[in-house]
């Protein structure tokens, strides 16, 4: 053999490896030529935002919407989750995208560990005949289960924990309440998260999601192939295994819950049952927990609104247990919940869609196989649609001048045939807890709260809005307040 003309040093190898890595990163970050006609949100500020751990909601308000206003467009190109995606920032254009029968949900790569957790064979991710079956099965199962009485029981447990009042970490209570609501209402399993918080299922889940949400791996999911995180994979697999054990137990002990009703469908596979169970956990638990944290925050920050909605709740519910028909007569409470979910949208964007053929969205032709999403946070803060979108104003859902435009522009649960199937479950879960809290307490934001200026969400891989370290001061209502007196006058 002829010897090599040179003997590579460690430095040479390091430089070569660095060059190859940089080239690989460049290939992943460059804008494909066929998408360069779409206004592109500048890459470097986006990367800085991702690596700094800025949450999606703040990134949208600080970077995406100002860029779109400068460019006078509601369709932009954004680097997100390891790919360049078209983001639609307005509800009518979102409707045009999401109601297009030729547009399909993109099957996600297992590179990103989030998809290893929730899978692809579920009601959120599936397409075609599988999607029709999942939609029918899950819709029927949820419609047969509206456990308002169970929500009230859990709300009483929350009230017993708050007791006579004091400072409470409310985002923790919201997480535990929604986990127990999901457990008992969806899978027929009591997680006992409210009564046994230490070492609870929700704590394990939060640890899994925090591990998944490493900024570097969210920006470049291909790193999961280059630098696999075996420990995180084991955490995910252990969590999924425990969820499967709950499913086995539910088959042996059926009850009045969503999972029992799903098991009546003979054509679904075990993988489909598993993926649906886990995706309902992620979507149903996290989004509602974030919504409950948000509405309690806004009522704490705006005491006049809190007093007004309490007056309505006391007039309609009195001291009765909440029923479905009660909330047909609480328009202001409903408006407060809708405005809260507009202002801090629980899930900021839809799952990506693609199409085999070109798609026209507004003035832009989107090439085939391009990921497309409706950015719901941007749609809810779009100044061309909403007056003073950064102001918390429930009245916008009640005033005649805005009534006609707000329903079609409010897209918290999505648009079209794939909108959230559990939206009523979530709304009643929120209505019951908030109304029962209003009958027991008034609450305020501590002067030293990190949320004093605005509501701050924690970093999430799934573009969710989950307030973090949200402490609230609760005070028991006096007899005078319960009879309609003003706390300032007492």
TrEMBL record:
<dbReference type="InterPro" id="IPR001128">
    <property type="entry name" value="Cyt_P450"/>
</dbReference>
<feature type="binding site" description="axial binding residue">
    <location>
        <position position="420"/>
    </location>
    <ligand>
        <name>heme</name>
    </ligand>
</feature>
<keyword id="KW-0408">Iron</keyword>
<keyword id="KW-0503">Monooxygenase</keyword>
<keyword id="KW-0479">Metal-binding</keyword>
<keyword id="KW-0560">Oxidoreductase</keyword>
<dbReference type="GO" id="GO:0020037">
    <property type="term" value="F:heme binding"/>
</dbReference>
<dbReference type="InterPro" id="IPR050121">
    <property type="entry name" value="Cytochrome_P450_monoxygenase"/>
</dbReference>
<comment type="similarity">
    <text>Belongs to the cytochrome P450 family.</text>
</comment>
<dbReference type="GO" id="GO:0005506">
    <property type="term" value="F:iron ion binding"/>
</dbReference>
<dbReference type="Pfam" id="PF00067">
    <property type="entry name" value="p450"/>
</dbReference>
<dbReference type="GO" id="GO:0004497">
    <property type="term" value="F:monooxygenase activity"/>
</dbReference>
<dbReference type="GO" id="GO:0016705">
    <property type="term" value="F:oxidoreductase activity, acting on paired donors, with incorporation or reduction of molecular oxygen"/>
</dbReference>
<keyword id="KW-0349">Heme</keyword>
<protein>
    <submittedName>
        <fullName>Cytochrome P450</fullName>
    </submittedName>
</protein>
<dbReference type="InterPro" id="IPR017972">
    <property type="entry name" value="Cyt_P450_CS"/>
</dbReference>
<dbReference type="InterPro" id="IPR002401">
    <property type="entry name" value="Cyt_P450_E_grp-I"/>
</dbReference>
<comment type="pathway">
    <text>Secondary metabolite biosynthesis.</text>
</comment>
<dbReference type="InterPro" id="IPR036396">
    <property type="entry name" value="Cyt_P450_sf"/>
</dbReference>
